[in-house]
Design a protein that fits this description.
The complex is a heterodimer. By secondary structure, chain A is mainly alpha-helical. Chain A is about 75% helix and about 0% strand. The N terminus of chain A is likely disordered. Chain B has 18 helices and eleven strands. The N and C termini of chain B lie far apart (about 65 Å). The chains are: A mainly alpha, B alpha/beta. Chains A and B meet through α14 of A and α3 and α17 of B.
Chain lengths: ~325, ~450
């Protein structure tokens, strides 16, 4: 309610400043004039919206609807497909690789999202303190952001090659056994998570750093005067006040994790034995390797539904998150 | 006339649009300049063609030279080469075919050829090729560009795997001689003996062998099946035929590579580490490899290495690697496209291309007379000899329109057999089910 009143006052003030007709002016204007004015405003609004709506339609809505249509077909992409109803979805239900890929996607999301946020927040707190050479450290952490996912994964291949990789050579040099990063399922999954964290933590740190720099130092000073220790200041001042950043990063990290492709595709190819297969790599393999595009589209639609469900849940949560400010 | 800044920008944008589209691999189909091409009739051909391919530096240089000579021989003909990375080659081609603006000509591996030919995307060359054209090629090569007995391309070159070996590693293991003729190739038992000797002499983190069956190279595993005189498709090229004694021997023998520690565990079919890299790093003493590796190997390796024939079981065999050149059905100038395809498969053209790029010819005359690679020419007879062991009944199966799905079946099941502990019986049974599903409706 308060927000609505505030918005109303603000709008009125803005209208006065910009010279737009006030409520009293509107009352004195003729109905015909008011109608033309509203029409012109609407026209201008739609004119501004049109480019975005066109782009949205061509690159999002049309492909999305097409994917849903294709998911009900058996097609290799050439010529007209054959309508098969819900056959592709029924096949998903009994496809162990699909379920393995779904489980892997969920597990990847559940591990990478909190870890990358925690590490990002920890790094941001460090980089926001009096750490020496923090400019250099910030650059080092942010550097992976400048590299594409494919290039990052190629570096990962050099590190995690189980015959000649840097990591296993280091492990052996200190007397530890080599890890089967490429032929062991759990180790391969861990390698994907580690490379992803290396790639993503810098981004998380950057967002948190921006959030931290918006917190007034007086709040920390007040907390210190009230006897709060370092952990208490972090727990009761920092964490709540970077809530909007956390909310943004939660959304971004979850969506990224649902859509993970390049790192898995290059680093492990989904193997060994589908241990690192995720929904997007499985859809890619079906769509572009096996050329079973109807089935691939069905996997894509499932991914879309999962993302929509998550977004809907977060939409509800976001109403309370907005109150932080 | 004075141009405004806006006019210049619009003009520059319009001029650069075709370049941008071509750079993205979306060049529009060729337009003919009129005049008509003569194709098989032998007269000068005119018009413009777009030709999309990937390739090593040596292959692209070979294509450029061939295009220059074609254009000189046919005044008025232009071929625009569009070289793209292999990784995006077929997603681009598929998108262009679906959008109705494919290139006139493109290069395609034999195992992918069937996907296009069997789905009506390629130009039927029957009426464009002169009579007796098929006699030019080896039966295996000609079989590889057929779909239901109709030619949809020309076999430009082939490649097949032989065994490259690290001389010092073999000598240390007491393997002092290797087969020098196809007939003397190691039998499977003898090969296993060599692997065992190497296993004994090598440290635990080094391996006797690495197989090049990663990714779509899983078709190279079929060599072991063909060496046992087996088939994965029956003669109708639809029914699965892999559940046989030959299939059992092939799965058992190759599974043993992993259980006996003859290959590193990350040498499985879905590994992202290529077998050649394992051998380059001297992690393995031997590797199965195609001739296309020779230029890189010769320029980068600092150890002595040689080549010998792949082992034989019931008979010698090889994977039918390499690529065909095909014209798309939508080409605006089929005569000119056909003329180009005929030109690049002429004797001199094929010899120059294959020698420069270390690839094997598909013409019967060149296979018989031999060819000298520009790099390590003394290895040419090994590769050419191994290629002669490829039979038409083998290569004909690999060009099945369902091959892309069959490849997935082979990858999944061999991965389970090699590193997942799946029994040979279960593997063959699952392969049979998968192949039957893949070819259903063919």
């Amino acid at each position: 309610m308060t927000a609505a009143v505030g918005l109303g006052a603000g709008a009125a003030a803005a209208a006065a400043v910009s010279g737009a007709p006030s409520a009293s002016d509107a009352r004195t204007a003729s109905p015909r004039h008011r109608g033309r004015s509203r029409a012109r405003e609407s026209l201008a609004g739609y004119a501004f919206l049109t480019p975005n709506l066109l782009l949205l339609g061509v690159f999002v809505i049309v492909p999305l609807v097409s994917a849903v249509v294709i998911s009900f077909q058996r097609t290799d992409g050439f010529g007209a497909g054959t309508f098969t109803g819900i056959d592709n979805y029924a096949r998903l239900a009994t496809d162990p690789v699909f379920w393995r890929s779904t489980l892997n996607t969920a597990l990847f999301t559940a591990i990478v999202t909190p870890l990358s946020m925690l590490l990002g927040l920890g790094a941001a707190v460090l980089m926001n303190s009096v750490l020496p050479a923090r400019g250099l450290f910030r650059s080092i952490l942010i550097l992976p952001m400048a590299i594409s996912g494919v290039a990052t994964a190629l570096i990962g291949v050099l590190v995690f090659d189980q015959n000649n990789g840097v990591l296993d050579k280091l492990l052996k040099a200190v007397g530890l056994p080599a890890v089967e990063w490429q032929s062991g399922g759990a180790a391969a999954f861990a390698s994907v998570v580690i490379v992803t964290l290396w790639w993503r933590v810098g981004f998380n740190m950057l967002i948190y750093l921006a959030g931290l720099q918006g917190i007034s130092p007086e709040l920390y000073e007040a907390a210190r005067l009230d006897g709060a220790g370092g952990w208490q200041r972090f727990r009761f001042v920092t964490v709540p006040l970077v809530g909007p950043s956390s909310f943004f990063l939660l959304i971004m990290n979850v969506i990224y994790s649902f859509q993970v492709f390049d790192i898995v595709f290059v680093l492990t190819g989904g193997g060994p034995q589908n241990a690192t297969s995720v929904l997007v790599t499985y859809a890619y393999n079906n769509g572009f390797v096996t050329r079973d595009q109807g089935y691939a589209a069905a996997i894509g639609v499932v991914l879309l539904v999962l993302t929509l469900v998550f977004t809907a849940v977060q939409w509800r949560v976001s109403r309370t998150r907005d109150l932080v400010d | 006339m004075e141009l405004t800044r806006r006019q210049i920008l619009i003009g520059a944008g319009a001029a650069s649009l075709p370049l941008l589209l071509a750079g993205c691999g979306f060049a529009p189909p060729a337009t003919t300049s009129g005049g008509g091409a003569t194709g098989s009739s032998g007269g000068a051909a005119t018009g413009t063609l777009t030709f999309t391919t990937w390739g090593t530096d040596a292959e692209l240089a070979g294509f450029r030279s061939a295009i220059d000579r074609f254009q000189q021989a046919n005044a008025g003909a232009t071929v625009n080469l569009n070289a793209v990375p292999y990784a995006q080659m077929f997603t681009n081609i598929d998108a262009q075919l679906q959008a109705g603006n494919p290139p006139d000509i493109f290069r395609v591996p034999y195992y992918t050829f069937g996907s296009y030919a069997g789905r009506g995307q390629l130009l039927d060359l029957s009426t464009y090729l002169p009579s007796g054209f098929s006699d030019t090629f080896t039966p295996a090569a000609w079989a590889a560009v057929q779909n239901k007995s109709t030619p949809y391309g020309v076999p430009h070159h082939t490649d097949t795997s032989v065994i490259l070996y690290n001389k010092a590693a073999l000598e240390t293991a007491g393997v002092t001689s290797v087969p020098t003729t196809l007939d003397d190739a190691w039998s499977w038992d003898e090969f296993e003996g060599v692997l065992q000797k190497l296993r004994t002499s090598l440290p635990a983190d080094k391996y006797p062998y690495a197989a090049n069956w990663q990714g779509n190279g899983v078709t190279r595993w079929l060599s072991w099946l063909f060496e046992s005189d087996g088939r994965f498709l029956a003669e109708d090229l639809v029914a699965p035929a892999i559940d046989s004694d030959a299939g059992r021997q092939a799965v058992d023998f190759t599974k043993n590579f992993f259980s006996a520690n003859f290959v590193p565990q990350n040498n499985s079919v879905k590994s992202t580490t290529l077998a050649s890299d394992i051998w380059y790093a001297q992690t393995s003493a031997m590797v199965s490899a195609g001739a296309f590796l020779i230029p890189d190997a010769a320029s980068t390796l600092d150890f002595e290495w040689g080549a010998t024939f792949s082992p034989r079981n019931v008979r010698s065999a090889g994977d039918f690697g390499g690529n065909a050149l095909v014209a798309t059905k939508a080409t605006a100038n089929p005569d000119l496209a056909s003329a180009f395809l005929q030109f690049v498969t002429q004797e001199d053209e094929m010899r120059q291309f294959c020698a420069g790029a270390s690839l094997l010819p598909t013409r019967a005359d060149l296979t018989a007379s031999g060819i000298d690679f520009a790099v390590r020419p003394e290895l040419s007879p090994v590769f050419v000899g191994q290629a002669s062991s490829v039979q038409a009944k083998d290569s004909g199966q690999v060009t099945s329109p369902s091959m892309s799905k069959i490849i997935t079946v082979l990858q999944d099941q061999l991965e389970q057999a090699f590193v997942g502990g799946q029994s040979t019986t279960d593997t063959l049974s699952a392969m049979t089910t998968g192949i039957a599903a893949a070819t259903a409706g063919s």
